[in-house]
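User: Could you check the structure of this?
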Amino acid sequence: MNKMTEFSWPIRVYYEDTDAGGIVYYANYLKFLERARTEWLRSLGIEQNVWLEHRIGFVVRQVQMDMLRPAKFNDELRVTVVVERLRRASVEFSQQVLDQNGTILCQAQIRAACVHLGEEGSAVRAVPMPTEIIEVLKRAS
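Assistant: Sure, the predicted structure tokens are below.
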């Protein structure tokens, strides 16, 4: 699969996203990245809550993140999503958080696995993505 077209989502840095010095707390970048992936799926017509009713979800399996420059309170950011690799049961993403000037503040490689959430008391296990989801992701590339 070739790289898909870049998806971009705007994020505003709120006071709650920052530490006492007004700098975005590092863990909040993970939230920004997650929000962009969720909005990317939504833009493709994939609503995660519908799949959760079938006990199908996505979990982050691996993260590699580089913090290059700080974002600050009230900054307007742009978070990008690009699919690097689509596998049967996982998706690998390249993501960036950029400021208004296009300067990369944070970059990350994320691998998300498709899982069956099991019934109450049973284990979560990796499963192949439903065909409907794979077809949508292939068309998006």
